């Protein structure tokens, strides 16, 4: 059967879904009959889920209950300066935001704190449900669009959100590429032999992209990219809001419930109206706690003055792309406008001045162009990659339902909505992994089935999932493109007509990287893996002349960065990382064999071998734990391994078990894996456990030595007290009673301190000599002196005892090897260039 793929424009402000129906892309209206779903997620007063316009409808009554513009935060770190700026500019009635345990962002939805990935998954789940009910058939796969200038962590976060919503994500497609698909199908290239240089100017709600494309019949290349992932129509709304509150409203009371939402909504409406009129009237009522009102006017000139600097910024970025491609404005054949903010007259006017009015092209609605292109990409795609993280299999035919190598389903998963936090979960999940609410008994709802008419015989009773007509056995629509010449509806994956060989006016694009992708090295530089403008997907390529210094560490971290700064990896943006945790002691320097590849979704895949070990495959984790937490976890992991290696035979069964649990948890943190509890709390608990167990074992040994040696010196009373302390320590350690272990340790320590310093030093010297911890030239004199000390104690010769204690202390002290100068400890192995 055909596995249909949904095209999704996941927008900052609005989202649109499209499928290929009869060989052409068709927008699927949502449950309210709207062509676009507002990208808003909220909760009602009763905690019920609200999505789209229904969420915006309660924003003024329930401040802090509606999340908008979450796309601007997805895949980003809370500490980033740009993220902090975006948070500072959020509306006053926006929900609270905090830093998550892994260094990302969390937003409160109702009673729960959710990540941008989880919130986006809620939105995608609603888009999927509405699309399936409108089309009457399931969509197990999706093509989801993102801004071309999104970073690698943002690409990965959108993919994660799609998978959480139940899709197998076929492609993460750059928005300008999607729009060019849509324009291409509209016969953008008039002559089959012509190549067209197309500049796509994409100014959306939250981001700006500019892309230079080369398009022809059967040819599609993305040549150069530029943009700003934090510049868009939302910034224009914020500017209008600030003008209204700071300059127009002045000292008027605006502290009433819902005032912030009403002012923001008025700014959004005014921005839209000023695209058609030169002046817009604004009425704000009620306003303030006493229910007053305010009326005013904003002109188009006022608005253009507010946004002039931002529009100039987009034009600077456009010039930068042209310079990077060695092109002039006259070399561009067409300028395509997409994104709702390109409807602003100032944008079109400035671009017409730059390129010529005849080149500025807007034949397709800029609000739907990206979604239409996503649907076309769904019809062109013929292969997909395995979604399983450990599996690196790519190029799997669309007809397959599971990965041929690892068996992972290629049809997504049936999902249910958690009634507590609303985050989707796989059908059959016992309890929600986010909020722990029971999901037992919940079942996924099948789409309302519809019937498709056969284009050959007209039979109206075919299921939309059927491949052949039940009457004439002719092939039915499976989601491919319609031939512009003979009108044949083709199978998915074809870029030329199977009936007449005509080339479609768009093709599978040859994408390129926006910026350098490189490996951070120990010396602070970057080993560039893929230069800006590298076409992808790529073949596997070897990275030569790398070594690692793993000595004294628990892990090796491959940190990938994105940006132009080759001399300082810290100046680039964190892209992702993979951490290899060592399970054995390693030498001081080992050779690192590394291979890298970019797949069709711009995902960096790694294959590496340390020394003569086996080759391991890895995909990057973009949501790494905060650096400080990762370092702390690595140090604790080293301490546990060192302690277990030195004293494993002395540990209790309970201590071995707890150390095994902590090793598993700390290894997961070091690797950057998601964790379901506070990382700070876990590290505090682990640190307390390690220190308590380490102290308890040490004082168990000290008490045992002192009890035995004390009896040999005739110190019966303190020896018996120390023996009792040792027994108390043993009992507490057997049951891993940490408070009891700490109390027993402190008691043993206090008894030890009651001994004379020279006495306990003599005891330890004799103990270490018996265990062979001294050179033979010292060991024998120490044992002889100890025997003499025992004899002196038995006859009560205190003068001889004092002399022998001094002799033992001196022998032990002189025999100790000098302590080397401390070296700076590394928390993970370092990758560095091989020296030649």
UniProtKB/TrEMBL annotation:
Keywords: ATP-binding, Chaperone, Nucleotide-binding, Stress response. It comes from the Bacteria. Residues 815-836 are annotated as: Disordered. It holds the Pfam family HSP70. Belongs to the heat shock protein 70 family. This is Hsp70 family protein. It comes from Streptomyces flavofungini.
């Amino acid at each position: 059967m055909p596995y249909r793929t949904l095209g999704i424009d996941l927008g900052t402000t609005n989202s649109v879904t499209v499928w290929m129906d009869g060989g052409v892309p068709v927008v699927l209206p949502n449950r309210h009959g709207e062509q676009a779903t507002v990208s808003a997620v909220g909760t009602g007063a009763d905690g019920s889920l609200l999505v789209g316009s229904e969420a915006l409808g309660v924003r003024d009554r329930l401040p802090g209950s509606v999340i908008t513009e979450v796309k601007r935060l997805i895949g980003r770190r809370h500490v980033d300066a740009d993220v902090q700026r975006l948070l500072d500019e959020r509306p006053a009635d926006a929900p609270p935001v905090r830093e998550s345990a892994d260094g990302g962002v969390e937003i409160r939805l109702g009673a729960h704190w959710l990540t941008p990935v989880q919130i986006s998954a809620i939105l995608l789940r609603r888009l999927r449900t509405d699309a399936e009910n409108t089309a009457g058939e399931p969509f197990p796969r999706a093509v989801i669009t993102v801004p071309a200038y999104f970073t690698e962590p943002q690409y990965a976060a959108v993919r994660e959100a799609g998978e959480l919503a139940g899709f197998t994500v076929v492609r993460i497609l750059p928005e300008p590429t999607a729009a060019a698909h849509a324009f291409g199908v509209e016969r953008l290239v008039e002559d089959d032999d012509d190549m067209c240089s197309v500049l796509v100017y994409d100014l959306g709600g939250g981001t700006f992209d500019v892309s230079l494309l080369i398009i022809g019949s059967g040819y599609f290349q993305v040549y150069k990219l530029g943009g700003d992932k934090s510049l868009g129509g939302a910034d224009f709304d914020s500017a209008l809001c600030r003008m209204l509150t700071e300059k127009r409203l002045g000292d008027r009371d605006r502290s009433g419930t819902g005032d912030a939402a009403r002012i923001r909504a008025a700014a959004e409406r005014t921005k839209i109206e000023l695209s058609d009129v030169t002046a817009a009237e604004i009425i704000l009522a009620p306003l303030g706690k006493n229910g007053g009102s305010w009326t005013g006017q904003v002109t188009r000139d006022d608005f253009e003055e507010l946004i002039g600097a931002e529009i100039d910024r987009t034009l600077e970025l456009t010039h930068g792309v042209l310079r990077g491609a060695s092109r002039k404005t006259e070399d561009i054949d067409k300028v395509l406008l997409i994104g709702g903010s390109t409807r602003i007259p100032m944008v079109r006017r400035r671009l017409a001045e730059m390129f010529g009015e005849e080149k500025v092209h807007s034949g397709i609605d800029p609000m739907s162009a990206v979604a239409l292109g996503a649907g076309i990409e769904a019809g062109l795609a013929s292969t997909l990659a395995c979604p399983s993280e450990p599996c690196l299999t790519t190029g799997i035919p669309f007809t397959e339902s599971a990965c041929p190598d690892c068996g992972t389903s290629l049809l997504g998963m049936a999902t249910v909505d958690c009634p507590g936090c609303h985050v989707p979960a796989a059908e059959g999940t016992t309890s929600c992994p986010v909020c722990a609410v029971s999901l037992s008994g919940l079942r996924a709802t099948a789409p309302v089935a519809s019937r498709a008419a056969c284009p050959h015989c007209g039979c109206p009773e075919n299921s939309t999932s059927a491949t052949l007509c039940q009457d004439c056995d002719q092939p039915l629509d499976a989601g491919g493109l319609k031939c512009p010449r003979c009108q044949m509806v083709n199978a998915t994956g074809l870029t030329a007509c199977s009936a007449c060989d005509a080339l479609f006016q768009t093709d599978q694009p040859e994408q390129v990287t926006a910026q350098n992708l490189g490996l951070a090295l120990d010396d602070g530089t970057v080993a560039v893996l893929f230069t800006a403008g590298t076409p992808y997907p790529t073949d596997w390529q070897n990275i030569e002349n790398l070594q690692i210094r793993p000595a004294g560490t628990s892990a090796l971290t491959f940190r990938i960065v994105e940006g132009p700064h080759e001399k300082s990896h810290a100046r680039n943006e964190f892209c992702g990382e993979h951490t290899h945790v060592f399970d054995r002691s390693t030498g001081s320097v080992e050779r690192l064999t590394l291979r890298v590849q970019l797949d069709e979704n711009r995902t960096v895949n790694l294959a590496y071998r340390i020394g003569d070990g086996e080759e391991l495959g890895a995909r990057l984790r973009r949501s790494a734990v905060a650096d400080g937490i990762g370092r702390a976890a690595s140090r604790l992991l080293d301490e546990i391994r060192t302690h277990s290696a030195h004293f494993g035979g002395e540990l209790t069964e309970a201590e071995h078990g707890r150390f095994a649990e902590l090793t598993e948890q700390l290894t997961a943190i070091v690797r950057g894996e998601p964790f379901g509890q506070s990382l700070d709390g876990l590290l505090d608990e682990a640190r307390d456990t390690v220190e308590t167990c380490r102290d308890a074992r040490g004082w168990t040994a000290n008490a045992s030595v002192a009890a035995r040696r004390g009896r040999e010196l005739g110190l019966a009373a303190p020896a018996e007290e120390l023996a009792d302390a040792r027994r108390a320590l043993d009992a507490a350690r057997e049951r891993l009673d940490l408070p009891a272990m700490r109390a027993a340790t402190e008691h043993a320590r206090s008894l030890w301190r009651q001994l004379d310093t020279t006495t306990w030093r003599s005891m330890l010297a004799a103990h270490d000599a018996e265990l062979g911890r001294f050179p033979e030239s010292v060991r024998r004199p120490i044992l002889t002196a100890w025997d003499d000390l025992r004899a002196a104690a038995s006859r009560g010769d205190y003068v001889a005892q004092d002399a022998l204690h001094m002799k033992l202390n001196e022998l032990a002290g002189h025999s100790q090897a000098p302590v080397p100068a401390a070296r700076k400890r590394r928390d993970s192995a370092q990758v560095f260039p091989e020296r030649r």
